[in-house]
Amino acid sequence: MKILSIHLFLFILLATWSCDKDIYSTTVATVSGNLPTNPQHPLTDSIRAIAQRHVARGVPGVQVMVKSPEGWTVVNAGYAKIEENKPMQDGMVAWVYSISKVYTATLVMKLKERGLIQLDSSIQQYLPPNITKRLDQSQHITVRMLLNHSSGLKNFTVSPGYFLAQLNQPLKQPDALEQLEYIYGSKNIFAPGTDFFYSNTNYLLLQLILEKVTGKTWGELLHTEILQPLGLKDTYYPVTESQVQTLGFPNYYFERFNNGELENCTKWHHAIAHSSVGYGGIAANGADVIRFMEALMNGKIVSQGSLHEMRQWIQGKQSTEPDYGFGLEYFEYIKGIPTYGHEGDNLGGTTEVLYIPSKQTYIFISINAGRQLFGQYLFRTSELKIALCKYISVQE
Amino acid sequence: MKDQFFRYGLLGLLLCLAFGGRAEAQNLSRTSFDLSIGLHSFFLPGIGAKFSAPKPIVMLGLYRGLGEKQTVQAGVTLGYSRNAHQGDGLFAQTQIRYEPTLGKSLQPSIGTGIGYQWAYHPSAPREWNGEAWVHGKKFKGVLQVPLRLALGFKGINAGHGQFTPYLAYQTNLLLGYSPDLSPLPVTALVGGFKFSPNLK
Fold first, then answer.
1. What residue spans define the domains of chain A?
2. Model ipTM?
3. Which residues from chain B sit within 8 angstroms of residue A374, using beta carbons?
């Protein structure tokens, strides 16, 4: 009886004491935007209405930036930090996650143009044996297959070992070589070149190839080949701790228990993003992402021939429409209207950049709630992105 | 290496269980108290995971021997696992254990059962009530399936009864924590003792 009383006491103590602190939250710096927006932009009201409708359904915060022939517009809705009702800000910087793959693919194409990388060469030509020997069928995997996700390599970020390591050490992330350990010795999902499977492993390997071929870090290449020539001053890699505190990053949230409740995971989210490098490590203001995409589409970074190659879409056996080019995803939000860009996801946020050629319009979306764990927020955030992208595809 | 350690450990324990004999007839109560402390981690051998960044866990049990031989024990365990980053866990579980005695003193044990865990958030969650962000519930209740292997040394007599110190490996599989993380294995390596009081 005495023992049961002790347990009852402990239970009551814990029930009242647990989780009173926000261990992952950060302060949101106040920043100003300097984007020359068009106050009469014809898309603003509709975008605002869509964003506010979804914020009223529980999306914490969203930023939408659009560049069309009528100029720029920015719409913010909801909060950058819900605990303090801190609004999203025009000039904020946010992680872009897998949109980083567009930059990595672009870097590969630039090196291809210089003859430093052959797209159809085996990755064994560029990577050391201590890596390739531990990857299934690496002799048959080419650079091209990494670029368009047809290598068949498993995605280490969804391996059980990676998942459990995230839970055990959220603030101590594995480096690139440690990340590969999670899929070493695994059988490929399909024979190289025979199907499509989106895998962060492919772009992690591309990062290593870029570094091996040039002797520079991926970050150095990003700066010298893309950011400096284009004058993109609001794009950041690597992101320092002081930048995290001063650039107006929002707080990030995820739904741990599939019960519609959000938990602040900002520091954990930052830690994952820091470690994502070539497959998801860039932070930027959305306008810079659009400027980069616009320069890419206008042939100002790579040649028209390379751009054409980047838009050679492959289609998975189970897909009903094209899936992927080189660092570019293909979408038809409205049947018959092709668009392309890239989505990005991390624990506490989701993004998208999209180009609609028929409208000469670019859109960037950043939402500070994650959809990587199955739950209500998978649907709430996806529905918002789809609604925005459908609208922007037709603009009626 | 760790996987091999667990495989051989499991094999050794199963051999002990297979060759284990009946409990010695002693003047002890059928009821025993069980206290263990140790470290836990999100881990399961064989899936590429590592027993990393372990955190403390404490368990307290009350068990009763069944049948004449008392090689089967049934009871309840209450436990608390501390985890600042993923949220604490408070649990209650029933277990049934097979605990033969090998030779005079060696007592292997295998057990399983069902339990319930109050899985806490590490930070206060928020919920949208249609108009504003309000505080959410501090925890979620999830089902738990414990799997336990232990090896004890029976027969340390004290004034009021007998102590059986042991080492145990216990995995609690959490069901319904999140659809993408279910079953979620929480594995503990603990040391503890069982105390069986003398009959009065």
1. 8-394
2. 0.89
3. 178-180
